[in-house]
Amino acid sequence: MSKLANSRAHWQLVQEIEAQAISSQREINVVKTAVATKQRDVRMLELTATELKQLGKGTKVYDGVGKMFVFSPTMEVEKRLSSETAELKSEISNLNKKLHYLETTYKNSREHIDQIFKPGGRA
What we know:
By secondary structure, the chain is mostly helical. The chain contains two helices and two strands. It has helices at 2-54, 74-117; strands spanning 61-65, 68-72. It has a two-stranded antiparallel ribbon. A hairpin with a 2-residue loop joins strand 1 and strand 2 (68-72). The radius of gyration is 25 Å and the shape is rod-shaped. The model has no long low-confidence stretch (mean pLDDT 89).
């Protein structure tokens, strides 16, 4: 009887580890998508900043606000683009840290499952 209880305990452990691995894999995909989106946004902001610097000093610059455009001083727009870029880069850094954690969790979960089913393992 204890062998049956032991087997059930192992099966439950495997199910918990597998659920954690699946959850980590889903989160990895979400984080990778978020990183790609934020990297694309950074590239667009950097391109906009580059184009803004190429404009002449007397060129008027307008910001989109809803369905209209409002005049904004060039320096103000450059500062906004710079701060948005820095903020996005910080978010990307944090997401990469989260991604590393999730990938490590997934790898460890897979290793534990493999160890359980490996001959001479716990199962």
